[in-house]
Every structure is written in C-alpha cells, then in structure tokens.
Amino acid sequence: MDKDFFKDEPVLVINPDGTINNKFESVSKCAENIGVGFATIIIAIKTNSLCRGFKIIYEDTWSPAIDYSYSKKNKIEKVIKKEKKKKVKYKEKMTSDEKELYREMCRKRAKERNEDPNSKFGRGHKIPIVCINTNEHFSTIREAAEKFDERPSVLSIFIQNEIPYRGMELKFDV
C-alpha cells in the first residue's frame, strides 16, 4: 500500500462528546476490536467520517485544543445551512433582465432551427425505411415496427448496426 495512504500508527477512538474512548497501538488492532476491516478504519480517518458511531484519528494528529465532539443534530444543521446558501446563490445568479434576454435568445434559436429545412428540430425522427429483400418502403420506423410487430427502438438498433431482422435487410432510405 501507499505509505501516504496507510500509516500503521497508534489511533484514538473518540466518543460523540469528544472524550477519548480507547487507544490502540495500530489500525489493525482497532479494526479487530471494533469489528470492521482495517480499510474501513483508514477510510474513516481519511474522510473524517464516523465508524460504528465513533470518530477515529491518528494519535499524532490529536490536540487537546481541538473540540472533537460531534452529533447527528449538528451534521443535519450544517446540511440545511448549505442548502439554504445554494438556493440563495441560484436566485442571485440571474437578474430579471438577464432571464428575459436568455429566453429571447432561446426562442430565436428555436425559430432558426425550425425554419432550416435540413434540421430535424421539433419534427421527431421521421426517417423513411426500406426493406431491401421485398423492396417495401415505410415512411417512419414506427410504421415498419408495426408491420414486423416489434418496438421501434429494437428495430432501430438492428438498422443502425446493419443486422438483418428476421432475415429482412432493413436500411434507412436516405
């Protein structure tokens, strides 16, 4: 294992109130005593998350000046504060003038796409299909799918990958 990732040094198991519950001479001993794999202990240390309800840290990183207490209530309050900040930031991103300008730009782009004869924007996928074996023409893939009693998406996969469907060779009639 990478030395930066795993140090087999003494670890401390900390209670929710911030007091030290136990000290172990290695990560392996801690994992054995708590009843989890040592990788779980390492992840809990590196991500500063809980393991079986305890916070676990390396002994050399412990300081009496730091408050190690934790609770689920505090965690929930932090998450709520973050969500409130996100909502406020989103509302502040665009002014009403900017929103109207953006809507106008989208309308203009949609109109240009609709007017372009080569564009398929807003028209669906009405690509004609031809059966090479019977020389039968279908105006849409849905029409061909109904003839062969199959879903259009399945038929499309066969056509795109140029695989014969039930012995029939189907192609897009472009």
Helices and strands in order:
Blueprint: E1 11-14, E2 20-24, H1 27-34, H2 38-47, E3 50-51, E4 54-58, H3 72-93, H4 96-115, E5 129-131, E6 136-138, H5 141-147, H6 152-160, E7 170-172
- The SS-based structural class is alpha+beta
Radius of gyration: 32 Å
Intertermini distance: 58 Å
Report the sheet with the most strands, covering strand number, pairing sense and barrel closure: 4 strands, antiparallel
Strand content: 5-15%
> What integer is the average pLDDT?
79
Count of DSSP strands:
7
H/E element string? EEHHEEHHEEHHE
- Give the strand order, joined by hyphens, for the main sheet: 2-1-4-3
Tally of helical runs: 6
Shape: elongated
Stretches where pLDDT is under 50 for at least 5 consecutive residues are none
